[in-house]
């Protein structure tokens, strides 16, 4: 996720990768300023934690990149369910793993000649359709955007439940925006 994607690009692939990049960054910002322990908390009726979401989306990027490149089979049910847990990793490790997976995904999409390239649907995966033989690279990329955006939204709710921080406040803090009438950058609460 080191490349700065141009969201105004007229190239479809670059524009779609730019949308994916923005959603990834929103997810990464959700852990801004948190401890490893806070990132592992599941503060709502859901079992989701911010660390678990980072680990899950790291696995998802790897799964879909493997499908695109026809080099791997997605994780099974047990591995899929386990991917929602931070697994004892630190926030720093989770973000580093996610960024590496994102870079591999970006490279895979940039390496294919055409977004109409077909990838066979892996068989025996319970959540994949049984009546579809293949997906286009475009479908896979749009699905990754959808999946990442869904979980970035989950991350917003979890973070707000943890300490009241909202996405725009976290972005302002992470990017060093000055305080304004529009937004006050998030600040770590004072310790008693």
UniProtKB/TrEMBL annotation:
It holds the Pfam family MST. It comes from the Bacteria. Gene3D superfamilies: dinb family like domain. InterPro entries: DinB/YfiT-like, MST-like. This is DinB family protein. It comes from Actinospica durhamensis.
């Amino acid at each position: 996720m080191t490349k700065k994607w141009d969201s105004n690009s007229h190239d479809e692939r670059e524009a779609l990768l730019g949308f994916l990049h923005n959603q990834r960054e929103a997810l990464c910002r959700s852990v801004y300023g948190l401890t490893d322990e806070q990132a592992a908390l599941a503060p709502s009726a859901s079992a989701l934690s911010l660390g678990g979401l980072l680990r899950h989306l790291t696995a998802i990027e790897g799964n879909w990149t493997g499908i695109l490149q026809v080099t791997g089979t997605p994780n099974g049910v047990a591995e899929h369910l386990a991917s929602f847990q931070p697994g004892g990793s630190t926030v720093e490790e989770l973000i580093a793993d996610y960024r590496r997976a994102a870079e591999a995904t970006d490279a895979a999409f940039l390496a294919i000649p055409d977004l109409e390239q077909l990838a066979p649907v892996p068989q025996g995966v319970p959540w994949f359709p049984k009546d579809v033989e293949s997906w286009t690279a475009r479908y896979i990329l749009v699905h990754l955007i959808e999946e990442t955006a869904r979980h970035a939204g989950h991350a917003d709710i979890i973070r707000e439940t943890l300490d009241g921080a909202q996405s725009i406040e976290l972005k302002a803090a992470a990017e060093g925006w000055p305080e304004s009438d529009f937004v006050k950058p998030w600040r770590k609460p004072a310790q008693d």
